[in-house]
Amino acid sequence: MRIAIIGFGTAGEGRLHAYRTVAAGRVVAVLDPSPERRARALRLDPGVVTYATLAELLAAQPVDAVDICAPPNRHVELEREALTAGLHVICEKPVAVRTDEALDLINLARERGRLLYPAHNYGFSPMMRVLTGAVTGGRLGGPLRARFQIARDSHARGVPGWQPDWRRDVAVAQGGIMLDHGTHCAYMATQLFGEAPRTVSCLAQWADGDAASGMDLAARLNLEFNGGGTCEIDLSWVSGTRSNRYLLSGPGGTADVHDGVAEVRTAHGVERTDLAPPSRDQTHQEWFGGMFADFAGLVAAGTGWDRPMREVVTTTALIEAAYRSAGRGGEPVVPAGFSAAQAR
């Protein structure tokens, strides 16, 4: 499969390296408006062709899919352009910020017969394999209770030469930590609980104490599921430390993944596994192989596309509901895309 990477910042560069580990995809082009970043791509891989825009690429050479690694404010417009041109699309999170945009993109993908696939790489991580195994194996029972804690001493920085602190610019990032790390937690929770949450409530800490800034630096979300389960998500860019913890509990036991250690406790005993902790490389290249294999397999089969495209909608709706709740002082909100996503 011939791939063009769109956006050659930290994520795009990480993706170029990651594609070297897979057999089903080959990067043939890199797109970035910055001459400096295009030159960087050529230094790393002289075999790619570089372009400033998608229009230039489409006029010059054929590709099968694009991998969008541009900043969030460009995602929807680039997805629309690529899908309209008949290309399959992988897109970094967030695929969309508003649920209506997500639904429009899914409709366009279906009309064009192309796959819109979210780059939800945490779904292919060692920690997620432990958590999923504990749930699907029935060892924890139900209803489940979950608590995710993501602590950072700052936001992740971008590449020099193009606004390294773009994550703190809401015009570019479209939001703060909820849209960034929160997106990962949202799709992980939806996958583990097997459904979208019934309600979402959220309290947030805003830059300069001003909710109107739209830049959340810390947040606590509470998800309530129809099956009786709950998930609490604590996020912070101002914690003074760096840590990840994912804790699931049920009547039958617990599954606890804390940085590089996983521990599953049930009536049958304790299973402890040392995992490679999430790397400081924010692109997590080591998880890419499984994700791309899933994408390429779906494209080849031509079926099963509803799963990732439904996840686009449920994830967008969950985070949109969290922002709406935070703006209302923590009032529970029903995600706008819940019914639509379940029906599709």
Automatic annotation (TrEMBL):
GO terms for molecular function: nucleotide binding. Residues 134-255 form the GFO/IDH/MocA-like oxidoreductase domain. The lineage of its organism: Bacteria, Bacillati, Actinomycetota, Actinomycetes, Micromonosporales. It comes from the Bacteria. InterPro entries: Gfo/Idh/MocA-like_OxRdtase_N (IPR000683), Gfo/Idh/MocA_oxidoreduct (IPR051317), GFO_IDH_MocA-like_dom (IPR055170), NAD(P)-bd_dom_sf (IPR036291). Residues 1-119 form the Gfo/Idh/MocA-like oxidoreductase N-terminal domain. This is Dehydrogenase. PANTHER family: CONSERVED EXPRESSED OXIDOREDUCTASE (EUROFUNG), OXIDOREDUCTASE.
